[in-house]
Amino acid sequence: MTCQTYSLFVLSVIMIYFGRFGNSLNLNQLQNDIDQLKADFNSSHSDVADGGPIFTEKLTNWTERNEKRIILSQIVSMYLEILEKADKSKDHVRHISEELYTLKNSLPDGFSKMEDLMDLAKLQMSDLKIQRKAVNELFIVLKKLVDSPTSLKRKRSQSQRKCRCI
Q1: Of 25, 26, 29, 145, which is most buried with the most CB atoms under 10 A?
Q2: What is the DSSP string of 16-71?
Q3: How many Cβ atoms sit within 10 Å of the Cβ of residue 47?
């Protein structure tokens, strides 16, 4: 796959992932629209390959369905930001924007989750007050980890195996 086809690949992954493939989305038309958009942005320029992909590389690190929805929400928002500055008088720009807006509306708001992660990264763990607060919350955090849905499923399946009632 060349660097010039990454945008098509990412859009295809996003749209197929959310079940729009075969419903109302015409991928052939979308591919034509994206090819026109590539021409608008001169994406065949040699610097496009510098540094590798910007979105598809990130997608490989997010494996769970809900995780992917968060990162895809951010990626779709970034594409919409790019298209805000594009010439909206062109049909292909409008069509891609409409599809992305439809997808964005089906995605969770990943921005607030991203802000939470950035806030956590900013915490000064060397600060004694932060350490005291963190220790005070430790049991609650561990309890949430233990009570996660996957551990509940595991507990249910273990109890079903133990009970062989006749």
Answers
A1: 25
A2: HHTT-BTTTB-HHHHHHHHHHHHHHHTTTSGGGGTT--SSHHHHTT--SHHHHHHH
A3: 9
| Contact between residue 10 and residue 59 where contact means Cβ atoms under 8 Å apart | yes
Q: Do residues 82 and 27 make contact, with C-beta atoms less than 8 angstroms apart?
A: no
Q: Which residues contact 52 (CB under 8 A, 6 or more apart)?
A: 3
Find, among 85, 112, 111, 79, the residue nearest to 98 by Cα. Answer: 79
What is the distance of C-alpha 118 from the center of its chain?
A: 16
Phi, psi of 2 (to 5 degrees): -85, 165
Residue type, 12: S
Return the bridge partners of 21, or none: 25
Q: Model confidence over 37-87: pLDDT tens digits?
A: 988 988 888 888 788 888 888 888 888 888 888 888 888 889 999 999 888
pTM (whole model) above 0.85: no
Under DSSP, is residue 97 helix (H, G, I), strand (E, B) or coil?
helix
